[in-house]
Amino acid sequence: MVELPLSLKTIMERGAGMSRRVEKECALFTKHIGKQFNGITVLQDINLSIYKGEIHTLLGANGAGKSTLIKIIDGIYTDYEGEIYVNNRRAQMKNSEDARLLGIGMVHQELSLIPQLNVAENIYLGRLPRNSIGLVHYKKLHENAQQLLALLNLTISTNDLVGRLSIADRQMVEIAKMLSMNAEILLLDEPTSALSDKEVTRLFETLRQLKASGKAIIFITHKLEEIYAISDKVTIMRDGQQIETLDLSIKSPDLEKNLISLMTGTEHHAETIYPGKGNVQEEIVFRIEQYTGRNFHHISLEVRKGEILGIAGLNGAGRTELARAIFGADRKDSGNTYLNGRPIVIKSPMDAIKQGIAMITEDRKKEGFIGCLGVKENINLTTIRDTVRHLLLHRRLEIQKAKKYISKLNIKTFSEHVPVRNLSGGNQQKVILAKWLALDCKLMILDEPTKGIDVKAKSEIYQLMRELAEQGIAIIFISSEFTELIGMADRVLVMNHGKIVHELRNEQITKENIMNHVFKDVV
Ligand SMILES: Nc1ncnc2c1ncn2[C@@H]1O[C@H](COP(=O)(O)OP(=O)(O)OP(=O)(O)O)[C@@H](O)[C@H]1O
Ligand SMILES: [Mg+2]
């Protein structure tokens, strides 16, 4: 027997002193969804109702089950318990194609584009427009793709190879691809994690238009301010369970505290997630002089002992390229490098690691971990040399180290042997962080280290960064989130069009000041 109590729901919308009844239609609902991986329950009794013209956010710590849930809705996992209804009809999808036919489109947490194909081909992959004799209609392909790029205000070309694009642009292409499907139900898994504020604003404008045209949207984010900016409802998930759904049109004074408490299952007391500024010493640990290379020019900077040096800038400002050049991952054309006052030469990441320079990269999937290896092996990747020296202790040390970081960073895994590819996106990030933290280093370069990390783990990472700085490690901290730069950095350099355009210290580090220089056009 099919009961459809959720097909039409009446909700009250309060206007200025007046109330108005608005009927909202349910686009999709789930009944008692449950899911196990290898006998371990990761979702339990999920009953979600998603309405047309609404943005419904899923919020929960890393590993809570958010991605798994929407992958079930997208037809990717078919072995689950419970039922899904789309437009009041039972939907039994066998794959993503079935979901597509039902008007469901998804943007994945892990980008799934093909680097060797161009932007237009990626957007319409498997659905290339054809002419009357069955050949690909390239003109139409590029015209259609161009329209989507224009909608998102993107300036890249439809001919650009995806492999050459920045992560942010790839993310936007992924979104364009979803839009090209004309889906009615949109599933967006952390679409903003790689985007800077400006791109997020643009994406939100598009989402508001889509919402106004009646689309139903499931949105996943770890950023609470995004929930306030765009969501109508938020469902909090914890350990595979649906904890509560809040209607955000009803104002609540303690919303942030409530959300964090519901997510973590503990009372949230902390007023701030930042540990406070540090004790920067005079001694310069690391210095570069006149670095010039692809997308960065004449960069000189120094980092002191115990200092967290923030680098602000838009995507494309040259921050990642500079960091990669310092780490020896990319070539530079010229420039000198000094560690503890001595000139050093770094030609490869191996050179950098030998000198005690660690880097956590932005593109973690590609460079950060080896998916088929376990959590333990990954955490120990950078320190294998160390442990090999004490062959007898080797295994025990590895396990100890892995356990230490699993607990320190709260990595959600059933054991240290689970292959990293089976962890949730955010927990994979934590493994990569752990890998580098386990290395004793003098300089640590962190490129967007909290991308995709839940609020609680974020504050643990901030704490750890401060601890490392207090131990005398110099830290370069690249971030697109102004608030975390303000919360963490002792000094901020602003990069714009490949140059350092400004330096901010102490009370000068404000959102207004950073924005002014980040957005200013450099001639
Ligand atoms: N393919 C898989 N095999 C085994 N376990 C998996 C697999 N995919 C996910 N899991 C487990 O299911 C749980 C939920 O993962 P999921 O990816 O849904 O979390 P999430 O809420 O999206 O987290 P995040 O915020 O980190 O992206 C985690 O414990 C994860 O380790
Ligand atoms: Mg996820």
From TrEMBL:
Sorted alphabetically, the keyword list is: ATP-binding, Cell membrane, Membrane, Nucleotide-binding, Repeat, Translocase, Transport
* Annotated compartments: Cell membrane
Q: In which domain of life is the source organism classified?
A: Bacteria
From which source organism is this entry? Paenibacillus naphthalenovorans
In terms of Gene3D superfamilies, this protein maps to: P-loop containing nucleotide triphosphate hydrolases
Record has Zinc as a keyword: no
> What broad taxonomic lineage does this protein's source fall under?
Bacteria, Bacillati, Bacillota, Bacilli, Bacillales
The name this protein goes by in its record:
D-ribose transporter ATP-binding protein
Identify the residues that the record assigns to the ABC transporter domain, covering every copy.
28-264, 280-522
Tell me the InterPro entries matching this sequence.
AAA+_ATPase, ABC_carbohydrate_import_ATPase, ABC_transporter-like_ATP-bd, ABC_transporter-like_CS, P-loop_NTPase
